[in-house]
Design a protein that fits this description.
The chain is an alpha/beta fold and 307 residues long. It contains 12 helices and 10 strands. The strands form 2 sheets. An 8-stranded parallel β-sheet has the order 1-10-7-6-5-4-3-2.
């Protein structure tokens, strides 16, 4: 059956949410905490952020599971809670959606493992694939509508994540890389190289998130705009962070993001959102900007009952 998410993308630009991690930090959670564990220990805070993004106009929200793989969770002694943390994250997002009464899509977020894959690092490819599969299985079980692979700086690792998710389910996949200041991955590839690889795996949406601000993201996705069947995504940071009096701050304003939302649409981007430093105010500004460029409205979506 055709995915409602992909049907919606074909109708016009879709607005995602903004940052989760920097929002948690802004509300008093220190950076050395395990943000993913908050799904279990402070679910009300996580759900509050989801609700704020939905009310700001987001049509897709990402689960608080960016680092919820067994390798990253092992740093906190939580490697045996992978299923619990991921499953609960989807439930929190689902409950926020139901409370707000808006037909938003639930995107299961999966980020890098935090350790390099062999031969550069010590993790074997099959172990990496197994870790990604474990996380994807939990997100799928809990009822995610799609999977977002985000902030990958190594194409080999992203390839293993895609293989694992495709083996786990047939949900739509959004695959996004994070670029350095010179517009390339940490492993040296450029946006066109990324697009060719992702096209070979037939991912549904490909793009750029985190890492750089809106202008650099726009430059990158324009290089990815090859004659491919996949849609493009752009979810930049709110500029580079600055440290002031012990706090990390981002200075790209909601108005600045609104202008770039228009530019992303003009460049053919269909999935638009924000990453580190973006807030519900940024999403509101982008929503207003997108409303000026399209009269499409999201369809009424029949979601499955909670498992």
């Amino acid at each position: 059956m055709r995915s409602p998410f992909l049907d919606r993308l074909e109708r016009g630009p879709l607005l995602g949410d903004g940052a989760m991690g920097s929002q948690l930090y802004a509300r008093g959670v220190p950076y050395d905490r395990c943000f993913d564990e908050l799904n279990l220990t402070d679910p009300a805070l996580v759900q509050r952020i989801h609700r704020e993004y939905i009310r700001a106009g987001a049509e897709m929200i990402e689960t608080n599971t960016y680092g919820a793989n067994r390798f990253k969770l092992a740093q906190y002694g939580l490697e045996d809670r992978v299923r619990d943390i991921n499953f609960r994250a989807v439930k929190l997002a689902r409950e926020a959606r139901e409370e707000c009464g808006e037909p938003v899509f639930l995107a299961g977020a999966i980020g890098p493992l935090g350790l390099a894959i062999s031969p550069v690092g010590t993790i074997e490819a099959e172990d990496a694939r197994r870790a990604f599969r474990e996380q994807a299985d939990a997100l799928l079980e809990a009822g995610a509508d799609l999977i977002v692979l985000e902030t990958f700086g190594d194409l080999q690792e992203l390839r293993e994540a895609i293989v694992a998710v495709q083996a786990a389910c047939d949900l739509p996949i959004v695959a996004q890389v994070s670029l350095t200041d010179d517009g390339r991955l940490l492993t040296g590839e450029g946006p066109a190289d990324v697009a060719r690889l992702l096209a070979s795996f037939q991912v549904d949406v490909m793009g750029v998130n985190c890492g750089v601000g809106p202008q650099s993201t726009l430059d990158a996705v324009q290089q990815m705009a090859l004659p491919l069947f996949a849609q493009l995504s752009a979810m930049p940071n709110a500029g580079a962070p600055s440290r002031l009096e012990g706090r990390y701050l981002y200075y790209s304003t909601p108005e600045y993001f609104a202008e770039y939302a228009r530019r992303f649409v003009d460049a053919g981007v269909r999935l638009i959102g924000g990453c580190c430093g973006t807030t519900p105010a940024h999403v509101t500004a982008m929503r207003q900007a997108l409303a000026e460029q399209t009269t499409d409205r999201p369809p009424t979506i029949a979601f499955s009952a909670p498992p």
